[in-house]
Amino acid sequence: MAATALSDFPMAAATRLDFSMAQSAATIRGGAHLAPPKTFSPISQRRLPFAAPKTLKFSTSSSKPLKSCPRPPISASASASAAPKTTTFHGPCYVVGDNIDTDQIIPAEHLTLVPSKPEEYRKLGSFAMIGLPSAAYPVPFVEPGTDSTVYKVIIAGHNFGCGSSREHAPVALGAAGTVAVVAESYARIFFRNSVATGEVYPVESESRICDECTTGDIVTVDLEKCLLQNHSTGKEYRLKPIGDAGPVIEAGGIFAYARKTGMIASSPV
Amino acid sequence: MASSTIISRSMPFTTKVKVGMTMTEKIFARASERTQLVPGENVWVNVDVLMTHDVWDREKIVIIPDHYIFTSDERANRNVDILRDFCMEQNIKYFYDIKDLGNFRANPDYKGVCHIALAQEGHCRPGEVLLGTDSHTCNAGAFGQFATGIGNTDAGFVMGAGKLLLKVPPTLRFVLDGEMPNFLLAKDLILQIIGEITVSGATYKTMEFVGSTIESLSMEERMTLCNMVIEAGGKNGVVPADQTTFKYLEGKTSTSFEPLYSDGGARFQQEYKIDVSKLEPVVAKPHSPDNRALARECKDVTINRVYIGSCTGGKTEDFMAAAKDKKVKVPTFLVPATQKVWMDLYGLPVPGAGGKTCSQIFEEAGCDVPASPNCGACLGGPKDTYARMNEPQMLLLNLQSVE
């Protein structure tokens, strides 16, 4: 059969269904783009509570000097209106292993919560990572009785976010206050959902970090330098460039990005 | 001769140099209006069908409540109500609604578990692109369709734009040859493969299944195979369409379609050859689909409970295979995937069973009465749904994780 009639992008003119309707559809269960803005703020080096160690040891895989990675390309219309970029995140990290699935990130019994409703969004955050077995993870990700986490960064092994297609997984992490996940690799739907919702930065590490970090270590993730510093151990690790996904997450997800870059009408109905 | 010289000279100019492509690459090429693609490229793909549960061209969207139904959970029911309002407002053609939660058969439009309903209702067509908000959307690869799971925000984007930015996946090819012993099912084949490549062995990749064994499989068995590629992390699974496919589709769709096949020179990232005649029944032990063991290695494991159902294991043929003239020793739960499967359990005679139907055999064996078709048992959703009414026990499942 013929391909769809849509041959051009921007698609606003080409769509047969009013695009604003589609946005309301997306809010039915997963309209995370309408979720409240995250409250983290850029943290510059001088605001760190302590000085970074002067002599940095490199992990085994990073014996070469660390170079800064290429900056993600930003389209002209996006950079024209761009606010100061938030590319450095700092705080305690939470460390997990391989194959952390979506049932551990947010069990299915909580998926009736609709992220576009602020109180339900907060509640999703309070349940983040609640499916982790407590025997292996004695430190809770979210302290019982609170609805957010102190862990700004999650450090993981391979295949983070495998399992279901539930968008609530990155949404729950973002709602809890986590800004970035640094894993060796991701399940593709989790990676996609992180970018589409703009809830967390799914950053890939070049080496296995999760065995060398401990929950509670203070880390800084620098997206521009592609660097993770563990201030508690004094080690540094290379990250892979976030690439074109960076501006989408920074904008707050694909809908916000599409509005910002003129792909769709900028005033939500 | 002069003319032949001209022809040979003109050849490089008249014939484009074309590198062989896999069938998934060709589906991407067609849907993105390109002639050539390589794995790793990001392209805008025109979407033929979007499936979501709970919306650009109102005839290309299929909405199937199936995960959070048959519950008194207020939020779950509220969400289905929001969904219904949206479908009415947008005049969505394929909305398989359920209103009477007390008796699913009172809902003529209600189908059941989305992936099997999509196939039975003719939405799975060779050569097309199907996206769905469920990780087991890859089920439709059985039809030679590119099918993969996405999140709700991506789905909202597709509803508005009709297209989505997707990365062209590299293909792992699995060549399965040899006569399949009658004690094996497609579930054994896919668990064998996942045990081999692990739960992340196909992450971001296509799993293409070919070979004489695959050609001999029914559509339902091919669905079982493709359904579980996500358990290996796969982006999609795909089986080349053939006469079996076309016969299944007869009378189910009036939409014309164009099957696509891997070229002779297509590049596969890796090829695995499996002699099916040498395989044994396998199981996936807790807590991972790649924790493979031979069934006979588990003969001393005590089973407390049995479940037959879900999108992977609740099709008509799955129940036919389970319907034996024996008594069950432990509670055995049955959840047909769709309303049609439920009807088959009560209507179709089991071959070689003297005219008895599955439901009669199951009743005599002491199984539970077949339950309403839905995803509840795998999902573990609201507290009053199937998976959450019981204490944890050793359970023999013929399914996988859900969504």
Automatic annotation (TrEMBL), chain A:
Gene3D superfamilies linked: Aconitase, domain 4 (3.20.19.10)
Keyword annotations of the record: Lyase
Protein name (record): 3-isopropylmalate dehydratase
Organism the protein comes from: Acorus gramineus (Dwarf sweet flag)
Residue ranges of the region described as Disordered: 60-85
Organism taxonomic ancestry: Eukaryota, Viridiplantae, Streptophyta, Embryophyta, Tracheophyta
Residue ranges annotated for the Aconitase A/isopropylmalate dehydratase small subunit swivel domain, each copy included: 153-198
Catalytic activities: (2R,3S)-3-isopropylmalate = (2S)-2-isopropylmalate
GO cellular component: chloroplast stroma
Automatic annotation (TrEMBL), chain B:
The UniProt record lists the keyword Lyase: yes
Database matches in Pfam families: Aconitase (PF00330)
Keyword set, alphabetical order: Iron, Iron-sulfur, Lyase, Metal-binding
MF annotations from Gene Ontology: iron-sulfur cluster binding; lyase activity; metal ion binding
Any GO BP: oxoacid metabolic process
InterPro entries: Acnase/IPM_dHydase_lsu_aba_1/3 (IPR015931), Acoase/IPM_deHydtase_lsu_aba (IPR001030), Aconitase_4Fe-4S_dom (IPR036008), IPM_dehydratase_rel_enz (IPR050067)
Highest rank taxon of the organism: Eukaryota
Domain Aconitase/3-isopropylmalate dehydratase large subunit alpha/beta/alpha: 47-293, 297-385
Protein name stated in the entry: 3-isopropylmalate dehydratase
